[in-house]
Amino acid sequence: MTIDNVKGREPILRVVPQPRDINANGHIFGGWILSQMDIASGIVAQREARGAVATVAVDRMEFIAPMLLQDLVSVYAWVERRGRTSLAIRIAVIATRGVDEEKIPLTEGLFTFVALDENHRPRPLPEK
């Protein structure tokens, strides 16, 4: 992943991790990052599906660099693929670090969501 992947895109979430989110190494827990990615990609999937969605798979996720306590974390997410009932959402997480505001790629992933009907069963996505 490079910073170029998110050029021209607005972040879906911007958040600063809290002291409760660090592990014994002084880095942010991977699970905390994963939850932020799920929230951001869920927002995109719900908008695209125009209704309820559920995360059904994380096809790939790679940690590129550690996230530190004072990082400003920007989570970008966009539709990579549309199926009949499912959406593949690409997520990129970038840290803005230090007084120089250095941009550091932290992680990326591909999350799959399925659109749900009122009975929590898969339903077709609306036409674009």
Automatic annotation (TrEMBL):
Top EC category: hydrolase
GO MF entries: long-chain fatty acyl-CoA hydrolase activity
Keywords per UniProt: Hydrolase
GO-annotated biological processes: acyl-CoA metabolic process; fatty acid catabolic process
EC code(s) of this entry: 3.1.2.-
GO CC, alphabetical: cytosol
UniProt cross-references to PROSITE patterns, sorted A to Z: HOTDOG_ACOT
Keyword Hydrolase recorded: yes
Segments forming domain HotDog ACOT-type: 7-119
PANTHER family for this protein: ACYL COENZYME A THIOESTER HYDROLASE, ACYL-COA THIOESTER HYDROLASE YCIA
UniProt family annotation: Belongs to the acyl coenzyme A hydrolase family.
UniProt protein name: Acyl-CoA thioesterase YciA
